[in-house]
Protein backbone atom coordinates (compact mmCIF):
# COMPACT_ATOMS: atom_id res chain seq x y z
CA UNK A 1 0.00 0.00 0.00
CA UNK A 2 2.94 2.37 0.55
CA UNK A 3 3.33 2.55 -3.24
CA UNK A 4 0.20 4.75 -3.26
CA UNK A 5 1.44 7.06 -0.53
CA UNK A 6 2.02 10.59 -1.80
CA UNK A 7 0.08 10.17 -5.06
CA UNK A 8 -2.73 12.54 -4.08
CA UNK A 9 -0.22 15.15 -2.88
CA UNK A 10 1.77 14.75 -6.10
CA UNK A 11 -1.26 15.33 -8.34
CA UNK A 12 -2.32 18.33 -6.26
CA UNK A 13 1.13 19.97 -6.48
CA UNK A 14 1.27 19.30 -10.23
CA UNK A 15 -2.09 21.03 -10.80
CA UNK A 16 -1.65 23.94 -8.40
CA UNK A 17 2.03 24.55 -9.27
CA UNK A 18 3.11 24.89 -5.67
CA UNK A 19 3.45 23.09 -2.35
CA UNK A 20 1.65 25.73 -0.27
CA UNK A 21 -1.29 25.98 -2.70
CA UNK A 22 -1.56 22.18 -2.77
CA UNK A 23 -1.58 22.14 1.05
CA UNK A 24 -4.48 24.65 1.07
CA UNK A 25 -6.36 22.52 -1.43
CA UNK A 26 -5.84 19.36 0.61
CA UNK A 27 -6.34 20.97 4.01
CA UNK A 28 -2.95 19.99 5.43
CA UNK A 29 0.43 21.60 6.14
CA UNK A 30 2.97 22.51 3.49
CA UNK A 31 5.60 20.46 5.32
CA UNK A 32 3.37 17.36 5.08
CA UNK A 33 3.01 17.79 1.33
CA UNK A 34 6.76 18.31 0.95
CA UNK A 35 7.56 15.18 2.98
CA UNK A 36 5.15 13.06 0.95
CA UNK A 37 6.64 14.25 -2.34
CA UNK A 38 10.19 13.59 -1.15
CA UNK A 39 9.24 10.07 -0.04
CA UNK A 40 7.56 9.42 -3.38
CA UNK A 41 10.59 10.65 -5.34
CA UNK A 42 12.87 8.52 -3.18
CA UNK A 43 10.77 5.39 -3.82
CA UNK A 44 10.68 6.07 -7.56
CA UNK A 45 14.37 6.98 -7.73
CA UNK A 46 13.83 10.16 -9.77
CA UNK A 47 12.89 13.83 -9.47
CA UNK A 48 9.28 14.60 -10.29
CA UNK A 49 9.53 18.38 -9.86
CA UNK A 50 12.04 21.05 -10.81
CA UNK A 51 12.07 23.48 -7.88
CA UNK A 52 13.07 27.15 -7.84
CA UNK A 53 12.47 29.84 -5.24
CA UNK A 54 9.33 30.99 -7.07
CA UNK A 55 8.16 28.11 -9.22
CA UNK A 56 7.50 24.39 -9.01
CA UNK A 57 7.22 22.65 -12.37
CA UNK A 58 7.07 19.03 -13.51
CA UNK A 59 10.10 17.34 -14.96
CA UNK A 60 9.59 15.33 -18.16
CA UNK A 61 9.43 12.17 -16.05
CA UNK A 62 7.06 13.87 -13.63
CA UNK A 63 4.77 14.94 -16.46
CA UNK A 64 4.44 11.38 -17.77
CA UNK A 65 3.85 10.12 -14.23
CA UNK A 66 1.20 12.81 -13.67
CA UNK A 67 -0.83 11.74 -16.71
CA UNK A 68 -1.01 8.22 -15.28
CA UNK A 69 -1.65 9.23 -11.68
CA UNK A 70 -4.40 11.76 -12.35
CA UNK A 71 -6.58 8.96 -13.75
CA UNK A 72 -6.12 7.02 -10.51
CA UNK A 73 -6.97 10.05 -8.37
CA UNK A 74 -9.98 10.91 -10.52
CA UNK A 75 -11.28 7.36 -10.21
CA UNK A 76 -10.88 7.46 -6.43
CA UNK A 77 -12.66 10.82 -6.22
CA UNK A 78 -15.52 9.61 -8.38
CA UNK A 79 -15.88 6.46 -6.28
CA UNK A 80 -16.02 8.51 -3.08
CA UNK A 81 -18.41 11.03 -4.61
CA UNK A 82 -20.73 8.28 -5.83
CA UNK A 83 -21.11 7.11 -2.25
CA UNK A 84 -21.62 10.70 -1.09
CA UNK A 85 -24.29 11.17 -3.73
CA UNK A 86 -26.08 8.03 -2.61
CA UNK A 87 -25.97 9.20 0.99
CA UNK A 88 -26.76 12.84 0.00
CA UNK A 89 -24.90 14.08 3.04
CA UNK A 90 -22.70 17.03 2.20
CA UNK A 91 -20.26 18.35 4.80
CA UNK A 92 -17.51 20.94 4.90
CA UNK A 93 -17.69 24.49 3.57
CA UNK A 94 -18.82 25.62 0.13
CA UNK A 95 -16.93 28.81 -0.76
CA UNK A 96 -18.41 31.07 -3.43
CA UNK A 97 -17.20 34.34 -4.94
CA UNK A 98 -19.98 36.59 -6.24
CA UNK A 99 -20.73 40.22 -7.00
CA UNK A 100 -23.58 42.44 -8.10
CA UNK A 101 -27.27 42.91 -7.46
CA UNK A 102 -28.21 39.69 -9.24
CA UNK A 103 -25.91 37.69 -6.96
CA UNK A 104 -27.22 39.43 -3.86
CA UNK A 105 -30.92 39.23 -4.69
CA UNK A 106 -31.15 35.99 -6.68
CA UNK A 107 -28.09 33.74 -6.26
CA UNK A 108 -27.79 34.08 -2.49
CA UNK A 109 -31.45 33.04 -1.84
CA UNK A 110 -31.01 30.07 -4.20
CA UNK A 111 -27.94 28.97 -2.22
CA UNK A 112 -29.94 29.39 1.00
CA UNK A 113 -32.38 26.83 -0.39
CA UNK A 114 -29.44 24.52 -1.09
CA UNK A 115 -28.14 25.00 2.47
CA UNK A 116 -31.52 23.99 3.90
CA UNK A 117 -31.34 20.75 1.89
CA UNK A 118 -27.92 19.92 3.40
CA UNK A 119 -27.91 20.81 7.13
CA UNK A 120 -24.28 19.77 7.71
CA UNK A 121 -22.91 21.96 4.91
CA UNK A 122 -21.60 25.48 5.59
CA UNK A 123 -21.69 28.16 2.88
CA UNK A 124 -19.30 31.12 2.71
CA UNK A 125 -20.11 33.78 0.08
CA UNK A 126 -17.58 36.53 -0.59
CA UNK A 127 -19.27 39.44 -2.38
CA UNK A 128 -16.29 40.76 -4.28
CA UNK A 129 -15.73 41.31 -8.00
CA UNK A 130 -11.96 40.88 -7.87
CA UNK A 131 -10.30 38.15 -9.92
CA UNK A 132 -9.89 35.05 -7.78
CA UNK A 133 -7.33 32.28 -7.69
CA UNK A 134 -9.53 29.25 -7.13
CA UNK A 135 -6.79 27.16 -5.49
CA UNK A 136 -5.03 29.78 -3.36
CA UNK A 137 -8.28 31.49 -2.30
CA UNK A 138 -10.06 28.18 -1.69
CA UNK A 139 -13.00 29.14 -3.92
CA UNK A 140 -15.26 26.35 -5.24
CA UNK A 141 -16.92 28.49 -7.91
CA UNK A 142 -17.64 32.12 -8.78
CA UNK A 143 -20.66 34.01 -10.10
CA UNK A 144 -19.67 36.51 -12.78
CA UNK A 145 -21.49 38.81 -15.18
CA UNK A 146 -20.81 39.97 -18.73
CA UNK A 147 -18.30 38.89 -21.33
CA UNK A 148 -15.77 36.40 -19.99
CA UNK A 149 -12.13 36.55 -21.03
CA UNK A 150 -10.42 33.33 -22.12
CA UNK A 151 -8.93 31.81 -18.96
CA UNK A 152 -9.13 28.04 -19.32
CA UNK A 153 -11.91 27.97 -16.73
CA UNK A 154 -15.31 26.37 -17.27
CA UNK A 155 -18.27 28.76 -17.52
CA UNK A 156 -21.92 27.76 -17.57
CA UNK A 157 -24.69 30.21 -18.34
CA UNK A 158 -27.08 30.97 -15.49
CA UNK A 159 -29.36 33.66 -16.86
CA UNK A 160 -29.64 36.25 -19.61
CA UNK A 161 -29.67 39.89 -18.52
CA UNK A 162 -30.96 42.30 -21.19
CA UNK A 163 -29.58 45.80 -20.76
CA UNK A 164 -31.64 48.93 -20.08
CA UNK A 165 -30.84 52.65 -20.35
CA UNK A 166 -32.79 54.99 -18.06
CA UNK A 167 -32.91 58.50 -16.69
CA UNK A 168 -35.16 60.49 -14.38
CA UNK A 169 -37.91 62.65 -15.86
CA UNK A 170 -36.33 65.72 -14.25
CA UNK A 171 -33.01 65.05 -16.03
CA UNK A 172 -34.67 64.45 -19.40
CA UNK A 173 -36.80 67.60 -19.05
CA UNK A 174 -33.67 69.65 -18.40
CA UNK A 175 -31.20 68.11 -20.86
CA UNK A 176 -33.36 66.41 -23.48
CA UNK A 177 -33.84 62.81 -24.60
CA UNK A 178 -30.92 61.24 -26.53
CA UNK A 179 -31.98 59.84 -29.92
CA UNK A 180 -29.07 57.45 -30.32
CA UNK A 181 -25.98 56.17 -28.44
CA UNK A 182 -23.71 58.85 -29.95
CA UNK A 183 -25.82 61.51 -28.24
CA UNK A 184 -24.61 60.17 -24.87
CA UNK A 185 -21.27 61.90 -25.46
CA UNK A 186 -23.07 65.18 -24.77
CA UNK A 187 -24.84 63.90 -21.66
CA UNK A 188 -23.84 63.24 -18.07
CA UNK A 189 -23.71 59.44 -17.67
CA UNK A 190 -23.57 57.49 -14.43
CA UNK A 191 -20.69 55.02 -14.73
CA UNK A 192 -20.76 51.71 -12.91
CA UNK A 193 -17.98 49.20 -13.73
CA UNK A 194 -17.20 50.36 -17.25
CA UNK A 195 -17.14 53.72 -19.03
CA UNK A 196 -17.48 52.02 -22.43
CA UNK A 197 -21.15 51.23 -23.09
CA UNK A 198 -21.94 48.68 -25.78
CA UNK A 199 -25.18 49.06 -27.74
CA UNK A 200 -26.66 47.07 -30.62
CA UNK A 201 -28.95 48.08 -33.47
CA UNK A 202 -29.97 45.97 -36.48
CA UNK A 203 -27.07 43.58 -35.93
CA UNK A 204 -24.43 46.30 -35.61
CA UNK A 205 -22.68 47.12 -32.33
CA UNK A 206 -21.75 50.59 -31.12
CA UNK A 207 -19.13 51.09 -28.41
CA UNK A 208 -19.60 54.49 -26.78
CA UNK A 209 -17.24 55.97 -24.21
CA UNK A 210 -19.22 57.96 -21.66
CA UNK A 211 -18.44 60.27 -18.77
CA UNK A 212 -20.30 62.04 -16.03
CA UNK A 213 -20.35 63.36 -12.49
CA UNK A 214 -21.12 60.11 -10.65
CA UNK A 215 -19.26 56.81 -10.68
CA UNK A 216 -19.88 53.78 -8.46
CA UNK A 217 -19.42 50.02 -8.69
CA UNK A 218 -22.54 49.53 -6.55
CA UNK A 219 -25.77 49.08 -8.51
CA UNK A 220 -27.96 50.52 -5.73
CA UNK A 221 -25.87 53.69 -5.67
CA UNK A 222 -26.13 54.00 -9.46
CA UNK A 223 -29.93 53.64 -9.37
CA UNK A 224 -30.26 56.17 -6.54
CA UNK A 225 -28.05 58.68 -8.33
CA UNK A 226 -30.10 58.24 -11.49
CA UNK A 227 -33.33 58.82 -9.57
CA UNK A 228 -31.85 62.04 -8.16
CA UNK A 229 -31.28 63.36 -11.68
CA UNK A 230 -27.51 63.05 -11.84
CA UNK A 231 -27.53 61.51 -15.29
CA UNK A 232 -28.25 58.54 -17.54
CA UNK A 233 -27.55 54.96 -16.39
CA UNK A 234 -27.12 51.76 -18.40
CA UNK A 235 -27.11 48.40 -16.62
CA UNK A 236 -28.95 45.05 -16.70
CA UNK A 237 -32.68 45.76 -16.60
CA UNK A 238 -33.36 43.90 -13.36
CA UNK A 239 -31.62 46.76 -11.52
CA UNK A 240 -34.19 49.29 -12.76
CA UNK A 241 -37.49 47.38 -12.92
CA UNK A 242 -38.87 48.59 -9.59
CA UNK A 243 -37.89 52.22 -10.20
CA UNK A 244 -39.39 52.14 -13.70
CA UNK A 245 -42.57 50.47 -12.44
CA UNK A 246 -43.07 53.23 -9.87
CA UNK A 247 -42.29 56.00 -12.36
CA UNK A 248 -39.06 57.15 -10.75
CA UNK A 249 -37.05 56.33 -13.89
CA UNK A 250 -37.88 56.45 -17.60
CA UNK A 251 -36.50 53.96 -20.19
CA UNK A 252 -34.67 55.53 -23.16
CA UNK A 253 -32.84 54.30 -26.29
CA UNK A 254 -34.94 51.11 -26.26
CA UNK A 255 -34.04 50.03 -29.81
CA UNK A 256 -30.32 50.05 -28.96
CA UNK A 257 -30.28 47.91 -25.81
CA UNK A 258 -28.04 44.85 -25.81
CA UNK A 259 -29.70 41.49 -25.21
CA UNK A 260 -26.63 39.21 -25.10
CA UNK A 261 -25.40 39.86 -21.54
CA UNK A 262 -25.42 36.91 -19.14
CA UNK A 263 -24.52 35.78 -15.65
CA UNK A 264 -22.22 32.77 -15.39
CA UNK A 265 -21.09 30.23 -12.86
CA UNK A 266 -17.34 29.81 -13.31
CA UNK A 267 -15.14 27.05 -11.94
CA UNK A 268 -12.06 24.94 -12.54
CA UNK A 269 -11.73 21.53 -14.17
CA UNK A 270 -15.00 19.71 -13.39
CA UNK A 271 -13.15 16.40 -12.95
CA UNK A 272 -11.66 17.68 -9.71
CA UNK A 273 -14.65 19.67 -8.51
CA UNK A 274 -15.83 18.68 -5.00
CA UNK A 275 -19.24 17.06 -4.79
CA UNK A 276 -20.58 19.97 -2.72
CA UNK A 277 -19.71 22.33 -5.58
CA UNK A 278 -21.10 20.04 -8.29
CA UNK A 279 -24.45 19.69 -6.55
CA UNK A 280 -24.62 23.41 -5.72
CA UNK A 281 -23.96 24.31 -9.36
CA UNK A 282 -26.60 21.82 -10.50
CA UNK A 283 -29.02 23.38 -8.01
CA UNK A 284 -28.37 26.88 -9.39
CA UNK A 285 -28.72 25.77 -12.99
CA UNK A 286 -32.02 24.04 -12.23
CA UNK A 287 -33.25 27.02 -10.19
CA UNK A 288 -32.62 29.59 -12.94
CA UNK A 289 -33.83 27.36 -15.74
CA UNK A 290 -37.31 28.00 -14.34
What does the secondary structure layout of this molecule look like, with pairings?
Elements: H1 7-16, H2 19-26, H3 30-44, E1 49-51, E2 56-58, H4 60-87, E3 92-98, H5 101-117, E4 121-127, E5 141-145, E6 154-160, E7 163-167, H6 169-175, E8 196-201, E9 204-209, H7 219-227, E10 233-236, H8 241-245, E11 250-252, E12 262-267, H9 275-289
Parallel strand pairs: 3-4, 3-5
Antiparallel strand pairs: 1-2, 5-12, 6-12, 7-10, 7-11, 8-9
Helix pairs in contact: 1-2, 1-3, 1-4, 2-3, 5-9
Structure in words:
With 290 residues, this protein is of the alpha+beta class. It is built from nine helices and twelve strands. The protein has three domains: 2-87, Arc Repressor Mutant, subunit A (Orthogonal Bundle), CATH 1.10.10; 92-161 and 262-289, 3-Layer(aba) Sandwich (D-Maltodextrin-Binding Protein, domain 2), CATH 3.40.190.10; 163-256, 3-Layer(aba) Sandwich (D-Maltodextrin-Binding Protein, domain 2), CATH 3.40.190.290. The chain has helices spanning 7-16, 19-26, 30-44, 60-87, 101-117, 169-175, 219-227, 241-245, 275-289, and strands at residues 49-51, 56-58, 92-98, 121-127, 141-145, 154-160, 163-167, 196-201, 204-209, 233-236, 250-252, 262-267. The longest helix has 28 residues, at 60-87. Pfam families: HTH_1, LysR_substrate. Keywords: DNA-binding, Transcription, Transcription regulation. Belongs to the LysR transcriptional regulatory family. One of its GO terms (molecular function) is sequence-specific DNA binding.
Amino acid sequence: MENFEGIIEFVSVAESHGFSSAAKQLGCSTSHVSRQILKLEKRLGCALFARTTRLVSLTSTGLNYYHQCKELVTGLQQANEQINTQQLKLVGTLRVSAAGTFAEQQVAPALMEFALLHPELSIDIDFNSKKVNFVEDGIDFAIRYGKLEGSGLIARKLLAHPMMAVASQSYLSKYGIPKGPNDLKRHSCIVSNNDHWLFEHQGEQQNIRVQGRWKSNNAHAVVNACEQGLGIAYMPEHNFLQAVEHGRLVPILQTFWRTDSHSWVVYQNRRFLPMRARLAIDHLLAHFSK
